[in-house]
Design goal:
With 450 residues, the protein is α+β, with helices and mostly antiparallel strands. The protein is built from 16 helices and 16 strands. It has four domains: 4-165, Nucleotidyltransferase, domain 5; 183-262, GIY-YIG endonuclease (3-Layer(aba) Sandwich), CATH 3.40.1440.10; 277-371, no CATH class; 378-449. Helices cover 35% and strands 22% of the residues. A five-stranded mixed sheet has the order 3-2-1-4-5, sandwiched between helices. A five-stranded antiparallel sheet has the order 15-14-13-12-16. A three-stranded antiparallel sheet has the order 7-6-8. Helix 11 (248-262) runs antiparallel to helix 16 and helix 12 (309-323) packs across helix 14 (357-368). The longest helix has 18 residues, at 148-165. It starts with a strand and ends with a strand.
């Protein structure tokens, strides 16, 4: 018989990094009734912000004599062993419990079930799926709202209601999937960042993807029937493998590299190879910064790269339109006089010396800033595949070199050490865009410029 642990936690904040659990409630359920329960305040070993106390009613005084999480960890493990972790917005509650165990040096792994997602699936067309609103709509009364025991018990009632609609909530839809893909194989997939591979019956790679949570992403593929291609691929999958990367940045870079290498049938976007055309800058004799398209060669540092002259020209035309750059100075319009765009008011006259070099060059800089690296030489350091490991990406002379891993205990702080960890990969436009996006959103732990 299936076992479910319906859980709610109250916390000192919303982020698992730096915030702690202040209360936890666990109701074990066998699919028909509650079989065990555990509710306790937890000493978070830090101050509870006033705004959080206003919401939950839990104060520092209330938790000062409560057990610390390390003192209830064994009880939590025993209650949830061989059980499905159920919560309303399960990512939040599961994330906090997992982080508390991580702080203790233990890896907490459980199958998960989200009553928010299930409610959206089984009870469509509700205006809101928050616990308070969906329970109100269904006539489920919540006692002690925003306390772990009250919210968890309400989630139990919601879970039972959903279970009455679909008794097979945990089952993964394997209909139409090759029989070699077992539920055990799917449940064994890690809930970590990495790259996954789908194979057909002849062991050919037919799809490569990346995710911050490999397990959830693969399951979503197998349960997807939204398009003909998705259904066709789903029927063709005979085996699955994966590579954990630890870092989402590394997962994106590895996915891009592997797609270009293997050219899987169902990957369309990143199959392009042969990025041998670059966009370059230089100053002419009058001091204007000019853009030009040329073949890549050693010693020349491109702003960005393209897989064909045609795609490069299209991109450059778009830059000219957006930033009112001169097509003549960008090598797109050959003439001895003014360019055509000047005649229709879209070029400010740099082609015939009417616009100052300072004004024109400022617009060129603005045009290329989104597609170029701010620094010529740098490392991006991010999380690795285990607690003491870090990942590292290197850009040298404006070109992406590759990535690697190192043990944080061995790092001597030098660029030479990090460079020795790098495995070379292709410097493609996709890789550059991945790195630029990472830098823009600061999705890494540390940037080292050298």
């Amino acid at each position: 018989m299936a076992k479910y642990s319906i859980i709610d936690v109250e916390t000192t904040g919303t982020s698992v990094k730096g915030e702690r659990i202040t209360e936890i409630a666990i109701f074990n359920h066998d699919g028909q009734k509650i079989t065990d329960e555990f509710v306790t305040l937890v000493n978070p070993e830090k101050k509870i912000p006033y705004r959080i106390s206003q919401i939950t009613g839990i104060t520092d005084r209330m938790v000062e004599n409560a057990p610390r999480f390390c003192e209830i960890a064994r009880k939590v493990l025993e209650l949830t062993e061989d059980s499905v972790f159920v919560a309303h917005n399960v990512g939040f509650d599961y994330g906090f419990v997992k982080e508390e165990f991580k702080n203790l040096g233990y890896r907490f792994e459980r199958d998960k079930l989200c009553t928010v997602r299930l409610s959206r699936k089984l009870l469509p067309h509700h205006p809101s799926y928050s616990l308070g609103n969906i329970c109100r709509d269904l006539g489920i009364q919540i006692f002690d709202r925003h306390r772990a025991g009250g919210d968890a018990l309400a989630t139990v009632k919601l879970f039972e209601y959903l279970l009455s609609i679909d008794p097979n909530l945990l089952k993964i839809n394997l209909k139409g999937i090759n029989s070699s893909i077992s539920a055990a194989t799917l449940h064994a997939l890690p809930e970590e960042a990495g790259v996954y591979y789908f194979y057909d019956s002849s062991q050919q790679i037919i799809y490569i993807g990346k995710s911050k949570n490999i397990h959830n992403r693969v399951v979503s593929h197998l349960n997807s029937e939204t398009t003909r291609k998705a259904l066709e691929m789903k029927h063709a999958i005979a085996d699955i493998s994966y590579e954990i990367t630890g870092s989402d940045l590394i997962a994106q870079l590895l996915e891009s590299e592997e797609i270009k290498k293997h050219k899987p049938l169902y990957n369309r976007q990143q199959r392009r190879t042969g990025f041998r055309i670059g966009l370059f800058t230089y100053f002419d004799e009058k001091g204007y910064m000019r853009l030009k398209i040329d073949k890549l060669s050693d010693g020349l540092l491109p702003i960005t790269t393209y897989n064909s002259v045609m795609s490069a020209r299209r991109a450059l035309f778009a830059l000219c339109d957006e930033y009112h750059l001169c097509q003549k100075l960008c090598g797109l319009y050959k003439t001895k006089g003014a360019c055509f765009q000047h005649g229709i008011g879209q070029c400010m006259g740099a082609c015939i010396g009417l616009e100052s070099t300072a004004d024109y060059n400022a617009r060129v800089e603005a045009a290329i800033t989104p597609v170029k690296f701010e620094h010529e030489n740098f490392f991006i350091i991010d999380r690795g595949r285990c607690p003491d490991e870090y990942s590292v990406v290197e850009v040298r002379h404006g070109a992406y070199l590759g990535f690697g891993y190192f043990d944080g205990n061995d790092f001597d702080g030098t660029a030479d050490f990090l460079h020795s960890c790098i495995h070379r990969f292709s410097d493609t436009r996709d890789a550059r865009h991945i790195i630029l996006s990472c830098l823009k959103h600061h999705e890494f732990e540390r940037l080292l410029v050298y």
